[in-house]
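Reading a protein record of the kind used here takes little practice once its layout is understood. An example of such a record is reproduced below.
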Amino acid sequence: MDLRHARTFVTVAELGTVSKAALHLRIAQPALSRQINALEQELGLKLFDRVGRGLVLSTEGEQLLPTCRGLLSYAESLAEQAQTLRHGDAGVLKVGASPQYIEGVLVDFLPKYVERFPAVRVKLTEAAGWSGIQSLLDRAEIHLAQGLARAIEPNNERFASRALGFVEQHAVWSPTFKFTAKGTVAIERLASIPLLLLDTGYIFRQIFDAACRLTKVQANLAFESRTPHTLLTLAERGYGVAIVPSTMRIERYALKVAKVIHGGGPLREPLAIFWDKRRALPRYATAFCEMLEAYSQRIRPPPRRPSQNQRPKAK
């Protein structure tokens, strides 16, 4: 099978039209159509049905799509492995991460990594939510992906991960807003405050809503957005208290900040960096994970746990 035909098939399946796929692959539409026809003749199967001006996968096409994606992933992995063997610590490292993590962590970490691996070009891709992350990993568009650690079960057979500290829920507000808190704020205190929250599509928001339900707090929603910086701007102008990830940089805004407390401790979630076990990572990718894990521990050390030998002090 010609890998170009497999790549064309996958691209058309994902974009839905020949015109979009041709633009994405930078080839003429007639040439793309000929590649699809050639693949259908080679396989003896009809891969698409035409509906209106678009294409939808046939039943056979739906079953072959995951296999073709895997084929392309293995082919790219082979090329990357060969490049690593030829050039050692030189190549391209593709990393997916949320916009907040890129802004809050990676912009300061990457110069340290590049100093150690100057011949590696790091290519960043915005990725939010496990479904988006897994799709990028499945299509071999990224080597590594940052996300919430609980996105996969421990000892997952498909994906491996390394811990990257945690992300906390922070409440931020304007100094002129009628609200006070020093360092921390219990989630119960937010019940009557106009809140500026992320869209419910964010796991970060879902965790906050779950904590509200557990504490029987009815959130006073003033505004919700898919853009965290919109919440920061509204909070700075005094529209309410914004609940944002601790990975966001808020120093450019005139805001006060406090950790959101739930059940006696900060409302936080562990972070991790993931990769597909089926792909052989180059040494510089493994080093990236190790360095980022160590860096995360320095900037956001995990909470200390008392050892088994420690005993509470007598009052």
About this structure: The domain at 3-69 is CATH 1.10.10.10 (Arc Repressor Mutant, subunit A). The longest strand covers residues 159-173. Residues 301-315 have pLDDT under 50 and may be disordered. The chain has three domains: 3-69, 82-164+271-299, 166-268.
